[in-house]
Design a protein that fits this description.
Layout lengths: L1 H15 L1 E2 L9 E12 L6 E18 L2 E9 L10 E9 L2 E6 L2 E7 L7 E5 L8 E14 L2 E8 L9 E3 L3 E2 L16 E11 L2 E5 L18 E2 L6 E4 L6 E5 L5 E6 L4 E3 L6 E8 L4 E8 L1
Length: 292
Amino acid sequence: MKKNIIVIILFVISGKMSFAQNIFPLNNPHWFNILSMTWKTGPSLPPQTNYYYEHYIIEGDTIVNNRKFYKLFISKNEGYNIFDFKFFTYIYIENSKVYYGKTDSLQLLLDFDMKIGDKFKFKSLNSPNPTIIELPVINVDSLVVNNSYRKRIKFQDFSEHKGVTWVSGIGDIEYGLIFDYGFINTGSSFNSFLSCFSENGLNLYGTCEPTGINSNLIDEQNNLFFPNPAHDKIVLISTNFVTIELIDINGRIIRKLACNSNEIKLDFVKPGMYVIRFINDERTITKKLIIY
C-alpha cells in the first residue's frame, strides 16, 4: 500500500512539473542585455543617459583536444538582425560549470555547484590588471521557468549595486550573460540587466519588444523624465502634462496617473519594457520605459 502511494505521488508531480537538467542553454538561445550609463552634463541641466545593447546567440561548435567548444556570437545593435552578429568568444561546459574565452585560456562564468557561503570572483574584462570582486552566495533555491525547475543562486549585493543571480539554463538574470564587473568600482551611475532570454523562439525570461505599440509613435528626442531604466519611481523634468498612461507590451493601459507631482511612483509595476504616454490638451508624447 505504501509503495502504491509513493508511485502515485511521483506520477502526479512529474505530470505537472519537469526538472530542467541543462546548466547552459544550447537550443538556439538568445540573450538580450541592456546597459545604461548616466551622467550630468551641467549643474542646471538634467542627467543624460546613453544606452548600449548586446544580443548573444550560439551558432555552431568546434572540437579542440577532444573538448567541444560552442561559438558565441554578439550583435551590439538595438534591433535583432542575424546579419549583424560577429564571433565573440567560446563557451565550454564541464559538469555544472560554464567557462568562456579562448580555447586555451578560459575563465569561469557560472558554477552551479556553489553552496551558501561559497565565494565567487567577479572580474572586469579586457584589462591587464582586472578588477576582482569576491562575493559570497547568500541563497540557493529553485525558480520555475516554462513548467520546469531551474536552480537559482543569489550572491550578496555589491557595495553600491545589486548582486548577481544565476539561473540554470539561462545565466545571470541581473547583469546579463557576460558583464564587465570593472564598472562596479568606477563610481559611474549605470544599470545593466538581462532584458530577455529565449530558446528555440520561446520567450522564457523578460520582455524584448513592445509588440502592441506602433513604434513610429514613440518620441525618441524629447527627454521628459529620468532615470530610464527605472526601478520604483521616475522624476519628471516637465509637469506641463495632465495625465500619464502606463502601457504594457500588448498595448493595454495598466494605469492612469495624475501628473500633479514631479515624482511618479512605479513600485507596483513588474520588470519589463513599457511605453509611457504624456497627455495634455495640446499634445500627446509617447516614450519607452524600462522597469527593472
